[in-house]
Each structure stands twice: as C-alpha cells, then as structure tokens.
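retry 2 of 3: previous attempt timed out while embedding manganese (II) ion. Reduced batch size to 1 and resubmitted. Inputs unchanged:
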Amino acid sequence: MKRTIIINSNSLDLSIKTRDVLTEKLICAGFNVSYNFDSAADLIISIGGDGSFLKTVHDFDFPEIPILGINTGHLGFFTDVYPNFIDKFIYDYKKGNFILQDIPLVQATICTKGSCIDMFAVNDVVIKGDKSRTIHLNLNVNNKDIQNFSGDGLLISTPTGSTAYNYAAGGSIVDPSLKLMQLTPLHPINTNAYRCFTSSIIFPHDALIGILPEYRFEDSLLIVVDGVEHRFERITSISITTSDVFVKLVRLDNYEFWSRVSEKFL
Ligand code: NAP
Ligand code: MN
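retry 2 succeeded.
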C-alpha cells in the first residue's frame, strides 16, 4: 500500500511553487499526496515559516502524525528543510535518516461564570488586557498565592516557545531537553502603588499555575494562544499546566538546538 503524505502550505508564491514541485517528487518517489487532513497519513509537511507551522498544528488539531516544516518564511525555528533541498529530504525520509522530537504543549483552562474551555499552545499563552489599560492578576502556584501582578500581562511559554515572544519580553532561552514552564511578566509595574516581580519565574512542567483576574477598569481579557487572539468577558479563573499531549516534529540528522539559536539570532 502507498504511504500518504499531507502537504499544508501557506499562500505565498514560493510556498505554492514548492508545494507543486514537492507533490511531483513525492509521487515519483512512490507516495500518495493529500492537501487535506487524512488520519491514515504517515507525515504532514507544512510549507511556510514558523507561523505556518503553528497554524498547521492548530488547524489539524494537534495531530499524532509527525510534522515536518519546509521554510519559505522568515525565521524558521520549526522548519528543517529549504525548498532547494527537497531531493535530499525525500532520500533521507525514505532511509529513515531523521528523528522525531516531542514538542510539549501548555494547556490553559479558561473558566467564565458558566463554563470552562481548554486551549493548547506550542509556544505560548499570553493573558493581556482587551484595551490598553493596566491589568491586575492574582498569581498562585499549586494553590499557593505568589503575588498580584499589575502591568500589561503575563506570558507563559513552553521550552519551545522560549525563543519567541518570551525572549523578546526578556525571558530566558531554554534548552529543549528541560521540562518546565516559564512565566514572564509583560511590563510589570513597580511603584509604591503596585509591586510585582520583574523577572521570569520558572516552574516545573507539572505545576498548576493559577491566575485570577481582578477587574478594576475592564472586564474583558485577551487570551493569545500561539499568536491568535481570543477575547473573553468576565473570566473567573485561568489554570495553566503542561499537557500530556505532544506534537511530533521531524528533525533531520543535522539539527542541533544551540547551533540553530546561534545561527538564527545570537
Ligand atoms: P509573527 O508575529 O509573524 O511571529 C513573530 C516572529 O516569531 C516570526 O519571525 C516567527 O517566525 C517567530 N517565531 C514563531 N515561533 C518561534 C519560536 N518558537 N522560536 C523563535 N521564533 C519564533 O506570528 P507567527 O509567525 O504566527 O508566530 C506566533 C508567535 O509569535 C507567538 O507564539 C509569539 O511567540 C510570537 N510573537 C512575538 C512577539 C514579539 O516578539 N514581540 C509578539 C507577538 C507574538 P517566522 O518568521 O518563521 O514565522
Ligand atoms: Mn510569522
């Protein structure tokens, strides 16, 4: 039986061209190709940048099928192949010259008066105000109060997301072999009116981070999940922990995290 590979591309010209070339080459190499989700497929290929990779993961609802990224985008932390190396990739893939990297997800449970919903993120979950006013959040871990936060918001990142928004907000880059969650304050206020922690806090992966909003001026909050905004009215509580679901990322033999960090932005 022929093995099926799903291709999900963004709409850039180069991505569409790459998709067409890749389709032809995969068919020549004996694979079936689908542009739609197929639960029997062996591999998903996302064509674009990191944003497209994240969109593929969310659109396909955190699939069990491994995902490979082909970079036609900007940065490409998740992507391991460039369009001009497709032949080499197909050769390596058929030979099994690749590893699967388990990517942990953070899970945020958002409760309003009537109900709770679960959201999952590869990179990060950000809690911020709907308008530009200061927000006030009570922070606890495993039901022990830490401190009230006042400022723009709180960002909780996975080790994978540590190089994204977290890094821009002054958080630390995390080696992917570590199991943890990093909570980074966004513009915390430190005055005689409001006191709050100014650096990131590192929690073990299985900690239960609790956030209780205090509504002083606004009663709606934005929950930004991997860069996508969700607006909520009157959240009563937010609980965040590491999910037991993983996404499997295809890494080629030459992948090494710290070389990628130094080549991409240090
Ligand atoms: P975007 O606004 O286009 O992303 C901003 C940049 O982050 C892009 O260059 C993207 O790479 C890069 N990126 C994404 N995930 C990364 C990772 N794990 N490590 C290093 N860089 C990464 O939006 P997007 O492409 O949909 O990505 C969503 C992410 O953007 C969010 O999860 C958040 O972390 C990040 N973000 C960052 C800021 C900030 O730095 N101030 C603000 C908002 C959101 P590509 O160019 O390859 O897409
Ligand atoms: Mn992007």
